[in-house]
Amino acid sequence: MEMWLSMSEFQTSLPQPTRFLDPQALTRIASLELIARTVVEGFISGLHRSPHLGFSVNFAEYSPYRPGDDIRKIDWKVYGRTDRLYIKEYEGETNTSIQLILDCSRSMSYGSQGITKLEYGQFLAASLGYFAFKQRDAVGFVSYDEDVVNYVPARGSVGHLNAVLHAIEKAQPGEKTDFVKPLVRVSERLRRRGIVVVISDLYDEPANVMNGLRHLAFRGNDVIVFQILDPAELRFDFPDAAQFVDMETRQEMHVIPEYIRQEYRKLLRKQIDEYEKECRKDRMDFSLIDISQPLDSALFSYLVRREQLY
Amino acid sequence: MSFVTPLFLIGGLAVAVPILLHLIKREHARKIEFPTLMFLRRISKRTIRYQKLRHLLLLLLRVLALLLIVFAFMRPYREKAQAAVTVGRITNAHIIVFDNSLSMGYQDRLDRAKKAAAEIIRKAGPDDKFAILEFSDLTLSRTQLGNDPSDALSQINSLELSDRSTRFGQALRTAEKFALEAGTGKRTIHLISDFQKNGWTAEDQDFRLGAGIDLEHVDVGSDDFSNLSIRDVHISESDQGVENGVGIKASIANFGNLDRKNVQVTLSVDSRSVAEKRIDVAKGGSQGVEFQLPGLMSGSHPAVIEVEDRNLTRDNRFYMTIEARGRTPVLLVENGEPGGQRPSSFFLSKALNIDALSPYKLTTVSPQNFVVSGGLLIWNNASGGTAATQKKLQDFVRAGGGLAVVLADAVHAADFNRSFGSWLPVRVEGPAIPESFGNRPVENYVLMTDVRMDHPIFQPFSRPHSGSFSSARFFRHARMSVGSGAEIPARFDNGDPALVSIHLDKGRVLIFASSADDSCNDLPLKAVYAPFWQQMLHYLENFQERRHWLDVGDTLAPKRLLLDTALHQAKANLDQAESVAVLDPARQRLSMAPGADSIVVDKAGFYEIRSMNVNAFVAVNPIPRESDLTHGNAEEMTAGWISSQSSGFSQDERPTPEEQDRRQRLWSLVLILGALFLISELLLSNLRMTVNPKQPREPSSTVKR
């Protein structure tokens, strides 16, 4: 199944956005866990009405205990009734791990719609983590700018979700972006094959970006790339001439937007197309996310990818 | 290029506004933090220059539009001088304006002026051009602009004095035209004159030379001078006419600052000296002289008063003609009365031959014997005669003769209509109140009450107590119908024409509707009878008092003059086709332009006009004010003429409103161009300023939780 959809195609294939919470509304919820739960539960309830996609995390069967099994999985109630040791088996239970990598560079702190790209990325990472946890996947989190800022390895325990959500919540905008160094370091520390989700605005030279992403993919990971951009970045519809300041380098440039709007859009579109092309070549998923759109589009993308794996 | 309202140039400072806005907006532009400039930097490499150009183009359009609007409001106009630039480009042009008026004949002024002019030509550069103008009250161009010094010198040497007076304004206007046509380079007008004070008249006081024209002067005049001139000449005839004596009075004026004693003044008549006087004239004053001449023979007598003065001889003589008019012959044609009865011209002949002072000499002939020989003709109560007779009458009138026709009992309507009616626009319908003389009822008459007092015949009667026609009763009269071409100076109270006047070529015809004696009216018994008939004859001969002299510059109509002379001298009418010769005072025959009937006299002395049978003299004198040699201040005069350089136009060059509008048409073109620039700027800026209504909010660069 071809995963990449253009932005417009992508948006039209989604369930009705009104069913989901607006990203701007999520910013008013204090708890990141609650945000993640709200998003995911809403997303799942939507999926139940879908004839195409679905999964279950319900109890599937009991299997006899064998030495070496995790004694925490022993159902003691059954042992009381039958005096035999049985292990609970769940339908959705796998050994998949998901590593969430969030770009925390200075450019991610931009937002023109009441929510920054970083905030949106945090919501997305939390939602994906919660969603993965619900499926018994191990969840890890990495934040980076020029280097790795925070690293939480992927684990499947209940308490670990809190650690992941806490790490996500702590993420702050840093300095410049580097895609090679932090991603190489992350790839070196990933022990298990799994899904790697990169959430970034990808503002670097495409060669550097792809170099970093390929390091993640070399170890057999399935890489999902979410390029999140603000509508102002996509449209560049500033009305008046202004002195534009680069948030990372602090360089300034006097720009009359109406003169260069078309040219800007053309260049941005070209880079996005290049990412899309290169990712497809390396069997990575690439999704462009407009932060004015609901989060479930990202979850949807994740689910599609996971379904392909199993 | 000049400007009508150059102060609008201050408005040019407005161009600073868009420039300042451009700079301020650039320096104080709002800062927007943006995630990355990587795309903008790539764009800048390729398009920033183009964008800057577009931006500059907008700025340029705004600035140019403002400048053009300011330029338009300054009202630029083209100077005519600049138009001439393209015609000819020369280095230096010298326009020598040479005064040859009568006053330049004082002592050696003319020679000194010629030397000064020659000096100007000799000092000029090899490529310089010259134009020579001579002026008095008439400005003539001796040469057009040319670079032949020898030709210019020969023109200067051939200059002669005229008898005309001085007028600077006209000469300078003409010189200015030459200077403007010379194009670029130094243009100098050299005014060589004695700078006579009265040469500058009040009407020329506003004159200023155009911009870029230099005026240099050579003053050959002097504050010390003495000149005698004859003025205020008055000729008085004796009560019995010039034939019985003429008195001539004159004033001898002494202009200058020297007393003149024992000055000889002589009077010559018909080229013979007839009187001589010696007088003393104080400086700045005048002395009268009086001559008494005996009776003169009829005819025109040239007379000259001459004063002895060697300084300026051209105004020493005063020329005049004294006309001993003689008596105008009047031929009265009527049928003889049978049986020794009183002729019908009884009263008329008494009225016209009232005494020796009458200007008319009446001769009575029968219709069969009359011969047209000039003078006037009265056709009194006689039949029209044959066609040949009428032809002679018609020719007589058309040649300038005067004819009066009296309609009384002997004139029958049919006969008049057949004869006179064939060439005059008058028909007789019949006699009114046809009763016999013996039975006339006292109450049955008409009065001549409707009289046009503005008509030359009746003008002397217009004043109060100068005669009344309404007291005369007209018992019988001819009832006339008048066609076009005739006028009716008087009517009876019943509306019938009493007197009809007809102009036919050079001559005149009067038709009186009643008798000249008392057979049909009692007018001969009234006081107005004799003057009425004298007025009618004056009108018929077109009598005018002749001037004794003309001034230089006046117009002379030779044929008209000869016609009057022929009439007065009782000679045959002047043949219209006959050639007339005009001799000037130097006895040179003047040629008249084809079709022209007059000439301008420009020399002092006697002009003689000759035809085959008649000749006449016309005296011409210089304009008296030219004899006043009072010297003006040349420096002040020339400074006044060149003091204003701003106008760029002399009065002659001052454009008409249409020309002015045409020269300023540039204004509207510039304004349209400015408006086009503004429209272009508007279109271009609107094209680039299309704004997406969904504008981004201010970026929030901090994570809010």
Architecture overview:
The complex is a heterodimer of chains A (310) and B (705). Chain A has 310 residues and is of the alpha/beta class. Chain A folds into two domains: 7-53 and 94-309, Rossmann fold (3-Layer(aba) Sandwich); 59-90, no CATH class. Chain A has helices at residues 7-13, 23-26, 32-48, 76-82, 117-134, 158-170, 180-189, 206-218, 231-235, 257-281, 296-309, and strands at 59-64, 86-90, 97-103, 138-144, 148-155, 195-200, 222-229, 242-246, 252-255, 285-290. In chain A, the strands form three sheets. In chain A, strands 5-4-3-6-7-10 form a six-stranded mixed sheet, with helices on both faces. In chain A, a hairpin with a 3-residue loop joins strand 4 (138-144) and strand 5. Chain A is elongated and about 80 Å long. Chain A starts with 6 loop residues before the first helix and ends with a helix. Residues 1-21 and 46-58 of chain A have low confidence and may be disordered. By secondary structure, chain B is α/β, with parallel strands linked by helices. Chain B has five domains: 2-75 and 668-688, no CATH class; 82-224 and 630-658, Rossmann fold (3-Layer(aba) Sandwich), CATH 3.40.50.410; 230-324, Immunoglobulins (Immunoglobulin-like); 328-541, Rossmann fold; 550-621, Immunoglobulin-like (Sandwich), CATH 2.60.40. Helices cover 26% and strands 28% of the residues of chain B. Chain B has 14 helices and 34 strands. Chain B has an eight-stranded mixed sheet with strand order 17-16-18-19-27-26-25-22, sandwiched between helices. In chain B, strand 11 and strand 12 (272-281) form a beta hairpin. In chain B, helix 2 packs antiparallel against helix 14, helix 4 runs antiparallel to helix 5 (149-157) and helix 7 (346-352) packs across helix 10. Strand 8 of chain A pairs parallel with strand 2 of chain B.
Query: Strands of the largest sheet of chain B, in order across it?
Result: 17-16-18-19-27-26-25-22
Distance between the termini of chain A: 14 Å
Separate helix tally of chain A: 11
Structural class of chain A: alpha/beta
Mean pLDDT of chain A: 77
* CATH fold-level topology of the largest domain in chain A: Rossmann fold
Number of strands of chain B: 34
Give the CA-CA distance, first to last residue of chain B.
73 Å
Number of strands of chain A: 10
Second rung of CATH, namely the architecture of the largest domain in chain B = 3-Layer(aba) Sandwich
CATH level-two architecture of the largest domain in chain A: 3-Layer(aba) Sandwich
Q: Which stretches of chain B are low in confidence, meaning pLDDT under 50 for 5 or more residues running? A: 81-90, 434-439, 645-654, 689-705
